[in-house]
Amino acid sequence: MAENFEQHSDISAADLARLTQEAQAEATPSTAKIIWSEFKADKPAMAALIIIVSFILFVMIGALFINTPKMMETNIMGYFNQPFTADYWLGADSAGRSVAKQLIVGSRNSIGIAIGLTVISSTFGICWGLISGYFNGYIDWGMQRIYDFMMMLPMTMMIIVLVTIIPHYNSVTLTFIFSIFYWEGTSRLIRSRTLAESEKDYVAASKASGTSHWKIIFREIMPNISSLIIVDCTLSFAENIGVETGLSYLGFGLPSQTPSLGTMIANANDPNNITQYWWTWLPAALEIIVLCLSISYVGQVLRRAADASQRQGSIN
Amino acid sequence: MSLIEIKDLKVHYPIRSGFWNRVTDSVRAVDGVSFDIEAGETYGLVGESGSGKSTTGKSVVGLEKVTSGSIMYKGLDITKAENRRKLDYNHDVQMIFQDSLSSLNPRKRIEDIIAEPLRNFENLSKDDEKLRVLQLLNIVGLDADALYKYPHQFSGGQRQRIGVARAVATNPKLIIADEPVSALDLSVQAQVLNFMKKIQREFGISYLFISHDLGVVRHMCNNIAIMNRGRLVEIGTRDDIYNHPLHIYTKRLLAAIPETNVNSREAHRASRLAVEEVYREQQSKYYDEQGEAYPLVQVTPTHAVALPQNVAQQLARQEGEVQA
Prior knowledge:
The complex is a heterodimer of chains A (316) and B (324). With 316 residues, chain A is mostly helical. Chain A has one domain: MetI-like (MetI-like fold). Chain A contains 16 helices and no strands. In chain A, helix 3 (31-41) packs across helix 16, helix 6 runs antiparallel to helix 7 (137-152) and helix 6 runs parallel beside helix 9 (171-181). Chain A starts with a helix and ends in a 10-residue tail after the last helix. Chain B has 324 residues and is of the alpha/beta class. Chain B has two domains: 37-66 and 77-243, Rossmann fold (3-Layer(aba) Sandwich), CATH 3.40.50.300; 244-324, no CATH class. Helices cover 42% and strands 23% of the residues of chain B. Chain B has an eight-stranded mixed β-sheet with strand order 6-7-8-3-9-10-12-11, sandwiched between helices. A four-stranded antiparallel β-sheet of chain B has the order 2-1-4-5. In chain B, helix 4 packs across helix 5, helix 4 packs parallel to helix 6 and helix 5 packs across helix 6 (156-168). Classes of the chains: A mainly alpha (316), B alpha/beta (324). The A-B interface holds A 1-2, 4-13, 15-16, 19-20, 22-28, 200-202, 204-211, 220, 223-224, 226, 308 and B 58, 61-63, 88, 90-91, 94-95, 97-99, 102-109, 116-117, 120-121, 127-128, 130-132, 134-136, 138-139, 143-150, 152-153, 163, 166, 171, 202-203. Chain B: InterPro entries: AAA+_ATPase, ABC_transp_ATP-bind, ABC_transporter-like_ATP-bd, ABC_transporter-like_CS, Oligopep_ABC_C, P-loop_NTPase.
């Protein structure tokens, strides 16, 4: 059989290295290069990327040097200390705890939960949507009824109940509890695109080439909806920061001894704090705004990189 | 023995309606089609759009769930998935698609696209695989620099040739060509068709050539089957179909081929209108009460037509007299 091809083509093993080199010279640039050139073409997005990366690195590393239990001890001498002083860079709250230190540890907790939640819920939602959309028929029907059931549950109420009945919970268990409820939107979105995508000829061609279902789902269809996945992941990351923050604000998120962006914004519950002691809540609120804006800028660039017709970078 | 034998193939799609969403009726896309394909020949399957030719083709590759009937290959019925697995069926039977752009995964490089069937059916080393892909590109007339490019960087004709390269990668026995050139302009059509012919000569491949373009079919096929509303209405050699058409549907298809000779424009127009006139007046003679085609009857050893026996004989005699 191999001879058959040898006979009718004047390419033989001797030419392999030379031709590979020729092909590599003409090769289309890799995805990583395209994304990088997109960032270079879009200055605000580049700034946003630098802000996100350096901020996350800063809080992750900085939190390691802070002794949290000691930091959270009440210190009556620091009662609502003014900001921009030597001991309290950003002032102190009603218990005399440093706002700056709380901000670092709190950001680490909140961002950690948001990352964990995005990874777990998006992975699950994407797999659920892909499988449901690809196989269609009875499998789709069954999986969508489970989805409908999950959608029917009052999400916030369930989380509050779960948080109250679990005796000792920390940020890891909280992440898992959130993950049970936050995969649905992603899964529906992915399913709808998969339904359309699996009707296309290249899927039929893969089936005719003898490729297995799982390989078709994850190696053929998934790369083709990657722009949707990337946009959805970045947006849900921004949203997930809000999920934890919102619940902590209501008092059902992390335990009170664990600082988070939500517990810090909860300081704004008190009208006195809003008007006089602005430094107790404003830094955390600003941080969330800046982070979410930056994430959506980065998401836009990733989306453009995934879609050749929208690119602005020099490599096409 | 023929390479592949299709017997009484039926593909019906259910129509669901009503409150309980029950099956109330079915669309008979393919309704009892039988024909054989010999090794090394090109078999033409012709019909208007919606006549079920693509569904037939997809059933033969194993992409369509068959309602009933059998497709025999090497003594096994490949409408069953386990038989397809046992035979490594798609190693021997491949497909070329109509839409060259959508049939190539836009996120994969050409090397990965052409190597896909090789990775599934043949365990080649990395270098052997790349060599085979380069040889295939060479055979379909593309340069080695296509290797690491993406499908959207090629023209329609080049893409279709990549599709041809993928189909012949495993050196199959049969390729289903589902309107392979309908989406291409005329000069590129000829280019791709000639490639397909060349590859057929070199590798001894059979084609099931699905098309609605009778001019192209005449260029490519030895045996032709005409399909109408899910059934075959006429089977014959190229000569039978083009020179002695018996069924009114075949005649209408032939009359619909555009003629470029301006001088005899009026004569062509008259003959087209005459065929249409016959169709309108004698429809009941060619189709049964439900408007379906009759079962096929043999007129000559190579020629069969879907008409009642006596009508077929009579028409054949008339046709013979006209020729004589």
